[in-house]
Write a structure and sequence with these properties.
Layout (H helix, E strand, L loop, with lengths): L10 E2 L2 E5 L7 H10 L10 E4 L2 E2 L3 E2 L14 E2 L1 H11 L5 E16 L2 E10 L7 H13 L14 E6 L2 H22 L12 E6 L1 E6 L8 E7 L4
Antiparallel strand pairs: 1-4, 2-3, 2-11, 5-6, 7-8, 7-10, 8-9, 11-12
């Protein structure tokens, strides 16, 4: 029997500090997640920076009473101030979400997660700016360390159960992004193939919260990068 580690009372799996891609680039991601990601109903497409995050990070109307357009539940000001203190000196940055190739976590013989790789636009290196942002936020919220694994920035698109289903999922997300890009404006590489990469200008961080473990995460606050 596997026992889950007891989470400290000040932390919660019902809140997260994350990056959310702009709506303009999410259609090819959601087209795959809709049928491939077991967390599709609970999570929007995202890159977690700190999860689990602080328990009860918001105040106002209960989450279950909110409509999708109701912003009455807000991030607590003390938490917003702590985030602002960190990100005010971090300028926005460009990344590309790459499915060429996509990344993969192998959890066990029958469990894998396929994910998009955030690449630094300037030099193609992996996740440098995101990692620096996460390190700075983690230092401020040092009480939120609940996982001793190294931070690997990723945007999950689905799960696979063996090498065959993993290969299919890799192809599916790559094709989905390439087809999407071909429709909004071809930008072929030297070989004539459209790179399966989505451009993303990262300019703010978000705090998400859900009501109950089966509720959908909602944005309760955001803080822009590089604004004094």
């Amino acid at each position: 029997m596997v026992y889950k580690r007891q989470l400290a009372e000040h932390l919660s799996y019902k809140s997260a500090l994350a990056l959310l891609p702009p709506a303009a680039i999410t259609p090819p991601i959601e087209a795959v997640r809709r049928t491939r990601d077991k967390s599709y109903a609970r999570w929007p497409p995202h890159i977690n920076l700190i999860y689990p995050f602080l328990a009860s990070p918001s105040e106002g109307k209960e989450l279950q009473m909110q409509s999708s357009s109701d912003q009455s539940r807000q991030l607590k000001e003390d938490i917003r101030s702590r985030i602002f203190k960190v990100v005010q000196d971090i300028p926005p940055f460009h990344i590309s979400l790459s499915a060429d190739p996509a990344g993969e976590f192998i959890h066990s013989k029958k469990s894998r997660t396929v994910w998009l790789r955030p690449l630094q636009e300037a030099d193609g290196s992996d996740e440098t700016a995101i990692t620096q942002l996460q390190v700075a936020l983690q230092a401020e919220f040092s009480q939120c360390i609940a996982d001793d694994r190294p931070f690997v920035p990723h945007l999950s698109v689905g799960q696979a159960w063996n090498e065959r289903t993993s290969t299919n999922l890799h192809k599916e997300i790559k094709d989905s992004i390439s087809n999407f890009l071909s429709k909004i404006g071809p930008n072929p590489s030297k070989e004539g193939e459209i790179p399966a990469c989505l451009d993303w200008y990262v300019d703010q961080v978000y705090v998400l919260e859900r009501n109950g473990f089966h509720g959908r995460f909602q944005v309760i606050g955001s803080v822009k990068l590089g604004e004094p």
